[in-house]
Amino acid sequence: MEIDIEKKCKSRLETTFMGVKLQNPVMTGSGCFAFGLEYMDYFNPNKLGAIITKGLTLEMRKGNNGIRIAETPAGILNSVGLENPGIDYFEKHILPEMNKYLNIPIVGNINGKFIEEYVELTKRLDKIEKIKILELNISCPNVKDGGMAFGANPEIARKVTGEVRKVTKKPLMVKLSPNVTNIVEIAKIAESEGADGISMINTLLGMSIDVKTRKAVLGNIYGGLSGPAVKPIALRMIHQVSQTVSIPILGMGGISNTEDAIEFFLAGASAISLGTAFFPNPMVALEVIEGLEEYCKNEKLNNISEIIGYAHSDNGIDYRKKLKLRK
Ligand SMILES: Cc1cc2nc3c(=O)[nH]c(=O)nc-3n(C[C@H](O)[C@H](O)[C@H](O)COP(=O)(O)O)c2cc1C
């Protein structure tokens, strides 16, 4: 019997992430791809595995004042401060456009200043058919209230995850902050409160100073570091977390090319997302998708998921078994 090589190649990136079928495991990091329509002049976003929206809040937010982005030698610092149009505007004006042009799963990124806000927003997003996965951002370092404080405090992380879990049946992933002493502890809490997945990592708190003015560059003084500089930290944390949970991880933090992406799968990620890398190279996601296909072909893998956690001491056998059992 002849094997249809083309067909086989196409299916090598197909995956199921938290119960949602994806044509490939490559997503866009929240805040780095807006609502998926802004890049249409460069490429068809329907080639991606999924799109994660900019962080949404109940009310419209203007974000932080002053300079909001500073370049660093291997990444950027941002203090955007969750600027977004709010859920009403999103539903009325952006969602219809997304419905028109996007036919891949959409991940809704949820933020709040109080637990009640997280819950309210979750209820609103739960009703939207187009949104297949919810991402609970308890890790934004650029907002004064809420944000990172939720993800850095184990008890608040427990409460917000548990409360949100009660009001939605959609697959829920919790986005973790790297600005903690023990990320494994927070990941385990999220899992025990009913999270279906973990996304990690958000940005690392940093600072840049202008030697001429002798003052902080960013209006908000501190900002979140992302890009190649944070990759080793993200890999280490994913490697640690994937050895202690049995839910899938969406890995991100400094992925700029195919090789970076492969490292994340080997560390324990089941899917990956690209953020800062879009800014210098809007085509990066397509390059990574093609690169991963090529890698599977060259390494004679039937599916990219065969290498999840391979950098663990048992070559990832235990973790992959747990992931399979959950499906
Ligand atoms: C400009 C900018 C805005 C971001 N906005 C959000 C956001 O609204 N919600 C969120 O969960 N993460 C946000 N992030 C974090 C990214 O989604 C991602 O976790 C982080 O940048 C690490 O990945 P990267 O190095 O590939 O960019 C933002 C990052 C950047 C650079």
Task: Name the features.
33% helix, disordered N terminus, 327 residues, alpha/beta, binds flavin mononucleotide
Brief summary:
The chain is of the alpha/beta class and 327 residues long. The chain has helices at residues 5-11, 87-101, 115-126, 148-152, 154-166, 183-192, 231-242, 258-267, 284-298, 317-326; strands at 15-17, 20-22, 26-28, 50-52, 69-72, 75-78, 106-110, 131-137, 172-175, 197-200, 204-207, 209-210, 215-216, 222-226, 249-251, 271-274.
Q: How does this model look, in words?
A:
This protein is 33% helix and 18% strand. With 327 residues, the chain is an alpha/beta fold. The strands form four sheets. An eight-stranded parallel beta barrel has the order 3-4-7-8-9-10-15-16, surrounded by five helices. A four-stranded antiparallel β-sheet has the order 5-6-14-11, with no helix packed on it. Strands 1-2 form a two-stranded antiparallel ribbon. Strand 7, helix 3 and strand 8 form a beta-alpha-beta unit. Helix 5 packs parallel to helix 6, helix 7 packs parallel to helix 8 and helix 8 packs across helix 9. The longest helix is centred in the first third of the chain and has 15 residues. The chain is globular, with a radius of gyration of 19 Å. The N terminus is likely disordered. Bound molecules: flavin mononucleotide (FMN). The site of flavin mononucleotide has 27 residues, from strand 6.
